[in-house]
Design brief:
The complex is a heterodimer of chains A (about 375) and B (about 190).
Chain A: H1 3-14, H2 20-32, H3 34-73, H4 82-112, H5 119-122, E1 128-130, H6 138-154, E2 167-175, E3 179-183, H7 184-187, E4 193-196, E5 202-211, E6 216-221, E7 246-251, E8 258-266, E9 276-280, E10 291-294, E11 299-307, E12 314-318, H8 321-333, H9 350-357, E13 361-366
Antiparallel strand pairs in A: 1-11, 2-3, 2-13, 3-6, 4-5, 4-13, 5-6, 7-8, 7-10, 8-9, 9-12, 10-11, 11-12
Helix pairs in contact in A: 1-3, 2-3
Chain B: H1 7-18, H2 22-42, H3 47-67, H4 76-94, H5 112-135, H6 139-148, H7 153-159, H8 165-190
Helix pairs in contact in B: 1-2, 1-3, 2-3, 2-4, 3-4, 5-8, 6-8, 7-8
The chains are: A alpha+beta (about 375), B mainly alpha (about 190).
């Protein structure tokens, strides 16, 4: 008997999927062949180990769920979770101001331009605009369709199914095994996600982690056609960035990759939000999720939003938030994401830096 | 503490825990966590330690409850406390700071045998985890989807973009053979 057939039979036997006759035959076979009997015993043991892992993982999932529920209630600490209560407190305190500001911003945005996305209405802080481009215009859609048709014609084997994206943003690799960082608001409502590198290779991805408070999301490329990439050129600093530090970014406010540069203008974000920086840089919808990099090639932040009624006021999530996200992923999903440790951008000129960088910044599309 | 709860209720809780019921888990946390936290904190631990130990104890009890042969010989509260206490003392011992300087006025039962079995299982769990890390992608995700998350073959074929369930199955078979090989190599080294 072929080994794969045997393993298959063992699994069906264990799961009680065999018919009466088959079962009798199988047991007979086992009795008469010590080798087969040995394989059955070994494989059954192995399968029971896998079953146990499955059970424990789903229990752990529930334990974590209950823990975080209790944590929010303040069950463990005797008071509601510290950071959370602070946010809620600030929120309550500023709610009125924000509401007024939002109303004004609403008027401004209506009268000025089309760049204000529909997110402005639904997001909690309405005066800042997440930089997702969810108004991919008809012209671009048409172009995409043509591109798809061309692709389908030439590479029907690996061709992706028809995919009509209705938003576009940016993301970048944090681990060559296919883990990307972007904003939570980018992937929040997405049903399907595709990431695309500068060469135009597209891969399916899914969000394995999102955090609405920090607005960070981590995606995993699920496509089997994706193979591990190496040589991520940037690193992630453990300390805070300095005021006036020059910074630059790469992103996809258009179908083509766009470079932008600026400086760090404040160490906190909107309304003193300490989880983000204020930077001065020219960005547009579609830049969301792009890396903010200093001259030494360290990713200090992730572009997330901009103030609607002020020019050049952009907010970037501090990259130090990534560490907490990775810890959480390790705890909940037991996935070990390793940040790059070798920086090959340091000490080279900007053009060379961008050349090295551009392969690792991805366009994120979805619907 | 919760003197009104009866053995019957304990058994119901155990049964629900074996079924991985979130409400039962929550009830057990609410009824027991504070005593265990108090013990651990009085003995050189932190809140995080208390949460880790509590989770580990829950896994031990979950597995016992699932085995079907487990009969509580004391209150669930006592049993859980005893397991946590033992786990924590063991941890202190491993860190060379063994001084159970503080005991709560709490009933305990011996649980050494259980913990020994658990430790061995835990080691096997770790071997399997290591083996899964070693086989790489897409094997890891594929096997996890089937054996851990219990997804069906057509679902997996769809998720991993195989043309049909049979292709996915062939791939899964190849991955499984590799995983088994790595697992058993480590398993034999261990002994």
């Amino acid at each position: 008997m072929e080994e794969n057939l045997l393993l298959d039979a063992i699994e069906r036997y264990r799961n009680g999927e065999m018919t009466g006759q088959e079962k009798v035959f199988f047991e007979e076979l086992r009795k008469n062949n010590p080798d087969i009997d040995q394989t059955v015993a070994e494989h059954s043991f192995f399968l029971s180990e896998l079953d146990r892992m499955s059970e424990i993982k789903s229990l752990k999932h529930n334990l974590d769920k209950v823990e975080s529920k209790l944590l929010n209630e303040g069950f463990f600490t005797g008071r509601p979770e510290k950071t959370k209560s602070k946010v809620i407190y600030l929120w309550n305190r500023y709610r009125r101001t924000i509401a007024v500001a939002a109303a004004i911003a609403g008027v401004v945005s209506l009268s000025t331009a089309t760049v204000i996305s529909k997110y402005t209405e639904s997001k909690k802080v309405a005066v800042i605009t997440p930089l997702v481009d969810n108004k991919l215009n008809q012209f671009e859609n048409k172009l995409n369709q043509i591109e798809h048709k061309l692709n389908d014609a030439t590479t029907s084997a690996t061709g992706k199914p028809k995919f009509e994206a209705n938003f576009r943003a940016t993301g970048f690799l944090v681990d060559g095994n296919g883990y990307l960082i972007t904003n939570a608001h980018v992937v929040d409502k997405a049903k399907n996600l595709i990431v695309e590198n500068i060469k135009g290779d597209q891969y399916y991805a899914k969000a394995i982690y999102t955090n609405d408070t920090t607005d960070l999301a981590i995606l995993k490329i699920t496509d089997t056609s994706f193979s591990k990439v190496t040589g991520l050129p940037y690193t992630f600093p453990k300390t805070s960035a300095e005021l006036a530090e020059p910074i630059f970014t790469l992103g996809y406010p258009r179908e083509e990759v766009v470079y932008g540069e600026g400086y760090l203008s404040a160490k906190s974000g909107y309304y003193g939000d300490t989880t983000s920086y204020q930077i001065s840089i020219s960005v547009n919808p579609g830049n969301s999720g792009g890396p903010v990099i200093n001259k030494d090639g360290e990713v200090i932040g992730i572009i997330s939003s901009r103030e609607t009624n002020a020019d050049g006021v952009v907010f970037a999530i501090k990259s130090t938030n990534i560490y907490a996200a990775l810890r959480q992923i390790k705890k909940v999903d037991n996935i070990n994401i390793k940040l790059p440790t070798v920086n090959s951008l340091k000490g080279t000129n900007r053009v060379k830096q961008i050349k090295k960088l551009e392969d690792f910044v991805y366009k994120i599309k979805g619907n | 503490m919760t003197g009104l709860k009866t053995y019957e209720q304990d058994n119901d809780l155990l049964e629900a825990l074996a079924a991985n019921d979130a409400n039962a888990i929550e009830t057990i946390y609410r009824d027991n966590y504070s005593a265990i936290k108090a013990f651990i904190i009085k003995n050189n631990g932190y809140t995080d330690d208390a949460r880790d130990i509590f989770q580990e104890a829950m896994i031990i009890i979950f597995e016992k409850a699932k085995s079907g042969s487990f009969v509580l010989s004391c209150r669930l509260q006592t049993y859980l406390y005893s397991v946590c206490r033992r786990l924590w003392l063991k941890k202190l011992q491993n860190q060379q700071r063994f001084n159970p300087s503080f005991e709560l006025n709490h009933e305990i039962v011996p649980v050494e045998d259980e913990l020994e079995i658990h430790e061995q299982k835990e080691a096997e769990f770790q071997l399997l985890e290591n083996a899964l890390q070693k086989i790489g992608e897409p094997c890891k995700s594929l096997l996890e989807a089937f054996y851990i998350e219990k997804k069906s073959m057509p679902e997996i074929a769809d998720l991993f973009r195989y043309t049909n369930a049979d292709n996915a199955k062939t791939q899964k078979y190849k991955c499984l053979v590799r995983l088994k090989k790595i697992f058993f190599e480590q398993y034999k080294d261990k002994d």
